[in-house]
Amino acid sequence: MQEHDLLDRHYKLSKEQKDFYQKNRYIKLKDVFDSETLSYFNNVISKKVIELNRAPKPLEKRDTYGKAFVQLFNLWQEDDEIKSFVFSERMAKIASDLLQVDGVRLYHDQALFKEAGGGITPWHADQYYWPLETDKTITAWIPLQETPLSMGPLEFSAGSHEIMDGRDLSISDESEKAIQNRLKVTDFEHVIEPFDIGEISFHSGWIFHRAGANTTNNIRKVMTVIYMDKDMKLKAPSNEGQQNDWDTWCPGVKIGEIINSPLNPILY
């Protein structure tokens, strides 16, 4: 197994960066990883995605959600190299510092590969799917290559965690239309920017975000890691998605208990 010192070397956040996150509930950070580290894990993760996604349905036969990306979960359980990446203390400490908590657990990871010609990812808030008691959640969105606008990088509505409308919508054509219409009558900035190599973003569970279509001939390869406060407790599910997440990502945990299942280790 190859050693990657950068995975556990701490990344220094400034007070301005922490304040920016508290206000906007997203932040993009440059040079979190170097090109060598990302190139290595691009190959490792891509190989595993291909192995696990052997017979994908043709794009034209999928719904909007299916056209948005190939989605595979908890790759850390499939490969020790990927586990070292997902368990990176460098990323986990950033997550903990931004959340202003004493430490973070893993909720789960997911690879999001938007194929060449892949469609939009509609507006949504991730925490719709999560049976978690507080909003002390954060997702690291890690492009494994430089990601220009033509590839469909992640877009944010800065500060939109304050909006309650749309929190009851799963990722769909309806969420794209309804949330977009709601955001049009706010002053929240719609942030659409490319990602440099080594640049990654962190966003809160209730921030509204989307991604454009991939109009290039290359796959937009992204790995994500979802973190939660290490003292996060399970809440009673309020929709089918949350029930499914309880069963899948928090096995054996009871409502009101800290989510300390074997799938939710403390990463920092």
UniProtKB/TrEMBL annotation:
Q: Which residues form the signal peptide?
A: none
Name of the protein described by the UniProt record: Ectoine hydroxylase-related dioxygenase, phytanoyl-CoA dioxygenase (PhyH) family
Superkingdom of this protein's organism: Bacteria
Cofactors required: Fe(2+)
Q: What InterPro entries would the database entry show?
A: Phytyl_CoA_dOase-like (IPR008775)
Name the keywords, alphabetized.
Answer: Dioxygenase, Oxidoreductase
Task: Note whether tRNA-binding occurs among the keywords.
Answer: no
Q: Single GO molecular-function term?
A: 2-oxoglutarate-dependent dioxygenase activity
